[in-house]
Design goal:
There is one protein chain. The chain is α/β, with parallel strands linked by helices and 185 residues long. The protein has a single domain (2-183), classed as 3-Layer(aba) Sandwich (Rossmann fold), CATH 3.40.50.150. It has helices at residues 27-39, 57-64, 77-87, 103-109, 128-138, and strands at residues 2-3, 13-14, 47-51, 69-73, 96-99, 115-120, 142-153, 165-173, 176-183. The strands form 2 sheets. A 7-stranded mixed beta sheet has the order 5-4-3-6-7-9-8, with helices on one face. It has a two-stranded antiparallel sheet with strand order 1-2.
């Protein structure tokens, strides 16, 4: 079972998504990622979108650490049920909106405030061209100071960043690789 590492909900346990095709972000990776994000001041007051959310662990961690709102998106029924259960930690706050939707379709139809922190943690078997389409759909919705986090298998190639989005950091943790990107020339 995953847990929230820091912030207002520190120590709370999150239900995990059962089944194949999902794998939780380890606490070690999450701690390192969020330490870096806090160093960039990317969390406090942010509008967060967690696509391929699974249990929502990344988005809920951001909320616990001071993000303003979370849009958590996943199409798989088991993941959506777990998202609903985990969102109960933030019940009544108006901070969480859950969307049972295909990632690309959701991003293409999304309205609302610009995305300030975007998590993309797709199933490792998602083909690279599909990830590129999702990144391309998200790009016009990014706040000028947004941070994009992509988590993949360490053997995966670097994502194909759409025009106007540039990688500024990459780190491998065992079998997991993270890329961080931002709007830029």
């Amino acid at each position: 079972m995953a847990r929230i590492i820091a912030g207002s909900h520190k120590g709370r346990r999150l239900a995990a998504v059962p089944g194949e095709g999902t794998r939780p972000t380890s606490d070690r990776v999450k701690e390192s990622l969020f330490s870096r994000l806090e160093g960039y001041n990317a969390i406090d007051g942010a509008v967060v979108v967690d696509v391929f959310a699974g249990s929502g662990a990344l988005g809920f961690e951001a909320l616990s650490r001071g993000a303003r709102s979370l849009e958590a998106v996943d199409l798989a029924e088991p993941a959506y049920r777990v998202l609903t259960k985990n969102a109960e930690l933030f019940a009544g706050s108006g901070q969480v909106s859950l969307h049972k939707a295909q990632a690309l379709r959701y991003l293409r139809g999304r309205t609302g405030e610009p995305i300030e922190l975007l998590f993309l943690d797709p199933p490792y078997d998602l083909p690279e061209p599909e990830l590129t389409k999702v990144l391309t759909a998200a790009a016009p919705q990014l706040h000028e100071a947004a941070t994009v986090v992509v988590e993949r298998n360490a053997r995966s190639p670097e994502p194909s960043w759409p025009g106007g989005v540039v990688r500024f950091h990459e780190k491998t943790y065992g079998s997991t690789r993270l890329w961080l990107a931002e709007p830029g020339a």
